[in-house]
From TrEMBL:
UniProt EC number: 2.4.-.-
InterPro entries, per database record: DUF1972 (IPR015393), Glyco_trans_1 (IPR001296), Glycosyltransferase_grp1 (IPR050194)
UniProt keyword list: Glycosyltransferase, Transferase
Every Glycosyl transferase family domain range: 196-349
Domain DUF1972: 9-179
GO MF entry, a single one: glycosyltransferase activity
The protein's name in its UniProt record: Glycosyltransferase
Length: 375
């Protein structure tokens, strides 16, 4: 047990690092790490060395360690965590917190060294279309290893907890992903794309098959709407599937690529007519939380995860995984502007206490302190 004059030391690894913000895990590490430091906990984040030209040891009170990786698409993340785990095991950290179920096998090292561990497994990686054959089998096995080699498994939704109980006969603690609601976002940044408020539908997410942008685009183009469809996101490599979408020619389609300016992204969310959420696999989705926080009318793929986040239709409409269903929901929304306005007005009410970053942080502190005491 830590003494009053000894800070609890937590090592965090498995994402790209801090303060690098690229995806959901990176955002979580930023939001969580900064709050842990403000509560007197020593936080060490393992950064992917190749992404940082400047490598200060401390940033905003967070200790940064820059570990290497094998720079190949399928090996980068796993080899980075492998190196980070070895470094942490030989250090004086009290608890190791890992994100991503793909890192499940590395828990063998923390077991050997007697380091308490927690892992946020998040999502159904083994079902994602991009992982076929060996990749799918690896992620299923790695997720299973997460439940065997780590002291505490964390999921971010009740539905993911049920999945892990069913697949691996292991219970997990549910700690949701946090949100930062924001009101009164200026319209000016969207003019960069020639857009007007409420004059476009929006998709935000990586251009990968399991986010179903192809399905949404097909259904949208078959509709009668004169509004545009703005697609925010890309993939960081040359991909035939993504290229096929970006090469579609229609005056209603706008592909922005990555939008790194947070004010511009906030404006795109805040002023859309409706936000399409086609993400198929995973628990609490950061893009959906942003849509709620920015007051969007949400049109979501009908999955158990999206049903949970939108409270079974209280804060959004659903569409089936068919292009014709997308067409129907577009045409319905065009005829129901008053109902969409009500969805926008109530969206932030969907961000219940469990999505508050301060509450999320308190739950993680309880986990880390418990693991430290058990050591």
């Amino acid at each position: 047990m830590e003494t009053p004059d000894k800070k609890l030391k937590v090592a965090i690894m498995g994402a790209k690092g801090y303060p690098y913000v690229y995806g959901g895990y990176d955002t979580m590490i930023k939001e969580l790490g900064e709050r842990l430091v403000s509560r007197g906990i020593h936080v060490r984040v393992y950064n992917h060395r190749a992404l940082f030209s400047d490598r200060p040891r401390y940033v905003n009170g967070i200790e940064c360690i820059y570990t290497p990786a094998i720079e190949k698409k399928s090996l980068t993340q796993l080899t980075h965590t492998f190196c980070s785990m070895l470094h942490a095991c030989f250090s004086d950290v009290d608890v190791i917190f890992v994100v991503n179920s793909g890192n499940g096998p590395f828990g063998i090292f923390s077991k050997l060294f007697g380091k308490p561990t927690a892992i946020n497994v998040d999502g159904l990686e083994w079902l994602r279309p991009k992982w076929k054959g060996f990749g799918s089998k690896y992620f299923y096995w790695a997720s299973k290893m997460s439940t065997r080699l780590y002291d505490q498994v964390i999921n971010d939704s009740e539905e993911m907890r049920r999945v892990y109980l069913r697949e691996f006969q292991t219970d997990s603690k549910v700690i949701a992903y946090g949100a930062n609601p924001k009101e009164d976002v200026a319209e000016k940044p969207i003019k960069h794309w020639g857009l007007k408020s409420r004059d476009y539908f929006l998709i935000v997410g990586r251009l990968v098959p399991d986010n179903n942008a192809d399905l949404i685009i097909e259904g949208f183009l078959a509709s009668n709407t004169a509004r545009k469809l703005v697609v925010v996101g890309d993939v960081p490599f040359d991909d035939p599937w993504a290229n096929r979408l970006k090469n579609l020619k229609d005056p209603r389609l706008i592909f922005t690529g990555y939008v790194n300016d947070p004010n511009e992204l906030a404006a795109l969310y805040s002023h859309c007519f409706a936000y399409f959420h086609g993400h198929e696999y995973g628990g609490t989705n950061p893009a959906m939380l942003k849509a709620l926080g920015y007051g969007c009318a949400i049109l979501a793929l009908d999955t158990p995860f999206n049903q949970e986040m939108l409270q079974n239709g209280k804060h959004g409409w659903y569409f089936a995984k068919m292009a014709s269903a997308v067409t129907e929901v577009v045409d319905k929304s065009e005829k129901s502007e008053d109902e969409l306005a009500r969805l926008r007005a109530s969206a932030r009410n969907g961000l219940t206490k469990k999505y508050d970053w301060d509450y999320v942080t308190e739950q993680y502190i309880e986990v880390f302190q418990q693991l430290s005491r058990e050591k």
